[in-house]
Design brief:
The chain is α/β, with parallel strands linked by helices. It has 2 domains: 128 residues, 3-Layer(aba) Sandwich (Rossmann fold); 108 residues, LytTr DNA-binding domain (OB fold (Dihydrolipoamide Acetyltransferase, E2P)). It is 30% helix and 34% strand. A 5-stranded parallel β-sheet has the order 2-1-3-6-7, with helices on both faces. It has a 5-stranded antiparallel β-sheet with strand order 12-11-10-14-13. The chain has a 3-stranded antiparallel β-sheet with strand order 15-16-17, with no helix packed on it. The longest helix is centred in the N-terminal third of the chain and has 14 residues.
């Protein structure tokens, strides 16, 4: 098998070459590359059957090679990656060897390469390793100051947040009101949008506190909430449509 070694560490490259030459007479090392761009250039001008490829190279991650070049060879990764990456390699029929490379692992990888009928499915690997958007963690409780105490208030117990006289407040379903340090903008960013809605510049309501909705002049909505408040709670005209969609979910 015509074999390319992609490895930017001289000692690792030398060690892998030695083990291959001493133990696998059917493997012919036809090239060495130490970077993403060097490998892309080599592959555009040469062909091989097998590639041993380090994950982290001198100019970036080796997966860039697969995005920039048409890799037709079988691929074996040499890596110190954690189980997340290793699982992706395994699921997609790409073998891997943990550094430092040792003979038993190399024998397994070469045997798999010999028996494989098709080149490595790089598209599946890239899909498996594609970063996913992390799940947003919403605030589960607020710490409020009450005289000389700090009191935790669970977010699920909050009926609404509002601003008044340049201060922010929350009101619980038990009709207890607490002052908060963050602005409504900061509070809104920490809330689950499925549970809370910013109806105006001065009010954020929970879905469960809304008891009824009344249309009023000007295309706005007036809400009846529980617990009741001493000021009218109205949905800004620009937010009416989005609010009704949210309330119906």
């Amino acid at each position: 098998m015509r074999t390319l070694i992609v490895e930017d560490e001289a000692m690792a490259r030398k060690n892998l070459s030695r083990i291959l030459e001493e133990n696998f007479p059917d493997i012919e090392i036809v090239g060495y590359c130490a970077s993403v761009m060097e490998t892309v250039t080599w592959l555009s001008q040469n062909k091989c059957d097998l590639i041993f490829m380090d994950v982290e190279l001198s100019d970036g991650n080796c997966f860039e090679i697969f995005r920039l070049a048409d890799v037709k060879a079988k691929v074996v990764m040499t890596t110190a990656y954690d189980s997340y990456a290793l699982k992706a390699f395994e699921v997609n029929s790409i073998d891997y060897i943990l550094k430092p490379v040792e003979l038993p692992a190399l024998q397994r990888a070469v045997e798999r390469a010999r028996n494989a009928n098709q080149p490595s499915d790089i598209a599946k690997v890239l899909a498996a390793l594609a970063p996913t958007s992390p799940t947003k963690q919403y605030k589960e409780r607020f710490l409020v100051r009450l005289n000389d105490r700090i009191v935790p208030v669970n977010t699920v117990d909050v009926a609404y947040f509002f601003s008044e006289n340049k201060a922010s407040y929350l009101c619980t379903y038990d009709k207890i009101r607490y002052i908060l340090n963050p602005s409504l903008d900061d509070i809104e960013a920490d809330l689950d949008p499925d549970s809370f809605f910013r109806i105006s510049r001065s009010f954020i309501v929970s879905k469960l506190c809304v008891k009824s909705v009344t249309k009023i002049i000007g295309g706005r909505l007036r809400l009846s909430c529980e617990p009741a408040t001493d000021q009218e709670i109205e949905v800004s005209r620009s937010r009416v449509d989005d609010f009704l969609v949210w309330l119906e979910k």
